[in-house]
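re: ur question from the group chat, yeah i did fold both. here u go
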Amino acid sequence: MISTRASCIGTGLLILLIRASAAGQQVPAAITTDPPPDHENPATMESPDILSHGSKMYAVVYIASGAGPHPTVVMMHGFPGNEKNFDLAYSIRRAGWNVLVPFYRGAWGSSGAFSFTHAIEDTQAAVEFLRTPENAKRFRVDTNRIVLVGHSMGGFIVASATAHDPRICGVALISAANLGPSSAKQRAGNPKEFHERWRANASRLAGTTAEALLEEVIRSPEKWDYMNFVSLLKDRPVLIVEADDRNTADNQALAQALRKAGNTKVTETHMATDHPFSDHRIALQAEVVNWLTRILQ
């Protein structure tokens, strides 16, 4: 049996190692340290319902401590959204931001039918929800400092939403899927594996099928190519975080195109990990939190 004293020594050593690693990786304090409590305006969490085109989306909002108003992130999950990045939401909140995490129509209990078009509409509905004066006051939101963050399919969705909403301050794309070109390439390369994966993902979503979603993408391929958003994103901060997955080349092409278009606010980083960043969760949090801090300076 390990003694309590030995256990405490081991824990202390582990903390020192984490701190040393954090310093080497420039991991911000928000990753490892809770902020001082504010008893009048504490950090808290609420679960509002957001109406999108007549259907109710479930959502969670992580409210930062302090009277605010706080800059706020809207964080959108992928297809179907197995990885929801809640650890990232907590780190962003500790850094002084609110985080709204909505679930698209037809996803994870939200009413209505899922589609990629609906996901874009739902993201805009979430942003407008925050801008409503009563909600801005209730959740202590700075409506002039709203940033979108999206993972995988959610990366495409927030790129589209940001491109078409000039009031969004910036956008972070985490292994963002370029839905049209990527789907066409994958289907041509390995159609059996492609269809099996889409059917498995669609089975977790309501009101749709893999075939319907594929038809949606094929019907208007230009709508689902995020390279068409470059001219609309060239003046805003863009974070592109890449992994070792099928989206890497598309992410790199987007970063290059943005720079070529004159965007001097592109931050691009690559992590040697899988699509959900399974063994780079702290590194991912550090990258996003540091970027959010920089764009407000």
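okk and heres the other one u asked abt
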Amino acid sequence: MVDLHSHTDRSDGNLSPEQLVDLACQKGLKALSITDHDSLEGYDVAAEYVDGRDLELICGVELSTKLHGRAIHILAYFLEDLPDTTFRGRLVSVQQNRRERNSRLTERLRQLGLSVKLEDAEALGRAQTGRPHFAQVLVNKGYVSNYREAFDRYLDESQPGYVQRSDPSVDDVLEWIREAGGISSWAHPARFVDKDSRSAEELFHELKEKGLNAIEVYHADHSPKQVEELLSVAQKLDLGVTGGSDFHGGEKSSAALGSLNLPMTLLGDLQRLSRKVAAAGRGQTED
């Protein structure tokens, strides 16, 4: 089995990179991609720890951007070579934007009458503090009864506590990934597609024209019907297919690590796509 979407405590997950690797091995996974938000730190730690284990570790990262004014996430996978220093430097810039947003988010919550301190969230989020950590602060202080309520009442994009981040454009994100030798996949797209007036095919065609390589067809939030529709669009537009549990640990996860039972052929197809994209970038034809 393979799981190409997971998070560690280096972003908004609950487990350390080492604990996540241990869990993947316990569950019999043969391949795992760590796709922390805007950070490769979790992967870097896990890459040293995984040595000697029967687990293929895939370098990945999840980047935030916007499409038609609404938030989307793009997964980047580096299947042939690790990302270079230029790409890593861009992640540092994105993380700085996140820190600036967190300061504004703290002030917005205070304006709503909530006694919240930035350091409370940072104590939970470490170097990668985000809305999930503010949600946990609201739970800890008794303002809400659970993590989901924190988003539903305050932190979701449509709620009064939401503060926009200065995210890079989708064109920039796709170009960064391409320049770094990676391939890109739109993460959990059904969340966006189901609320948009455009068809899935229209949306994915638009992003393919911008350089998107794949669709995260298999995700814990996707119904069988949505999976079927996304798979059909991927095949029609000749886009790759990715999938994963989006495991975070604890109540932040809607599915257990490896629970989608995705076959290793999914990774094999993605690796072939990566080589094809790399060859096209060099103006070559893959044998």
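fwiw on the second one: The longest helix spans residues 85-111. The radius of gyration is 19 Å. idk if thats what u expected
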